[in-house]
Design a protein that fits this description.
- The longest helix is centred in the middle third of the chain and has 15 residues.
- Strand 1 and strand 2 form a beta hairpin.
- This protein folds into two domains: 126 residues, Enolase-like, domain 1, CATH 3.30.390; 118 residues, no CATH class.
- It has seven helices and 13 strands.
- Helices cover 23% and strands 26% of the residues.
- It is α+β, with helices and mostly antiparallel strands.
- Helix 1 packs antiparallel against helix 2.
């Protein structure tokens, strides 16, 4: 890599200025009294950073739709004349589906160049929720305006070269009919009552709750929701339990003895899920359940 290219790379990976970071609710504790806040930046910051680091004339963004998913590709021309393109997909927002997907895809693609990647490793900040379950629009952690550097929480640095893999078109696997047949067979043999008992942390016949537990700053409640990535949705029981197999699973998908550890009760699955173009899904679920099953837990993109 030429010296000039390295300078651009370093600029793209600069720590995100605190004054450009915003916060939104990531997930709430069960009692709806506190929320873990996710840090994010808006698309305007990404544009400004590309202009500043690469030059307005040396980058461009293009969009394409595959199925119902919008992808953004950011092309960068480097000082040595080489050109790279990095892509990622976006998620709809509640405000404007199409515009939200475009903005989200743009920011996610920019992460592959290093812009905003330091937000991945920030510590968790917790906010008190009001009676309606909301926080102030311009909420910031206590002392955020100080000159202290961002607390990375011990995660990867902004200069890390590790990125989330770009979603790829689906690969040809088992036929739909064969997969459904296997799913039905497993679902029929699943003892739902046993599954509920196995997956419920009960004390004296009642499910544990964090309602009366005082939360320390950056300490998630026992039953908070986390994002588990790269799972295969194989089957669903009549009572709503879902068989989520890790993408690394190499056993017999139709063998209940081999897959029984990966059934997740409906009460432990969050509402947010993301189906990727490669056929895998990202699912929110209760943290302790995900940890018990050995799933790989990753924080979602901070956007």
């Amino acid at each position: 890599m030429s010296n000039d290219n390295q300078l651009v790379t370093n600029a793209l990976n600069d720590p995100t200025p605190k004054e450009r970071i915003k916060f939104r609710i990531g997930f709430k504790n069960r009692s709806k009294t506190k929320a873990a806040m996710l840090a994010y930046v808006d698309a305007r910051y990404v544009m400004d950073k590309l202009d500043e680091s690469v030059g307005k004339e040396n980058w461009s963004a293009s969009y394409s739709i595959i199925g119902k998913v919008m992808f953004c590709s950011i092309e960068v021309k480097w000082p040595d004349g080489s050109i790279t393109t990095k892509s990622d997909c976006g998620m709809e927002t509640e405000v404007d589906a199409e515009k939200g997907q475009a903005s989200d895809a743009f920011k996610r693609a920019a992460v592959h160049y290093g812009i905003g990647r330091d937000l991945y490793s920030m510590k968790n900040y917790w906010a008190d929720l009001d009676a309606g379950g909301y926080v102030d629009r311009d909420w910031q952690p206590i002392g955020w305006d100080s000159q202290a550097p961002l607390d990375s929480g011990g995660g990867d640095s902004a200069s890390s070269t590790t990125t989330r893999p770009v979603s790829q078109p689906p690969t040809k696997e088992e036929s739909a009919a064969k997969l459904v047949a296997k799913a039905d067979k497993i679902a029929e043999s699943l003892p739902d009552d046993d599954l509920n008992a196995e997956n419920s942390p009960k004390t004296g016949g009642t499910v544990k709750s964090d309602d009366n537990v005082k939360l320390n700053d950056a300490t998630p409640p026992e039953d908070d929701l986390v994002m588990v990535k790269n799972l295969r949705n194989q089957a669903k029981s009549q009572k709503g339990a879902v068989l989520y197999l890790p993408d690394t699973f190499t056993g017999d998908k139709s063998n209940y003895e081999q897959t029984k550890n990966y059934w997740v009760g409906a009460q432990f699955i969050g509402k947010e899920s993301q189906k990727m173009m490669n056929g895998l899904v990202n699912v929110t679920m209760t943290r302790w359940v995900a940890e018990q099953k050995g799933y790989k837990i990753e924080d979602d993109l901070p956007f």
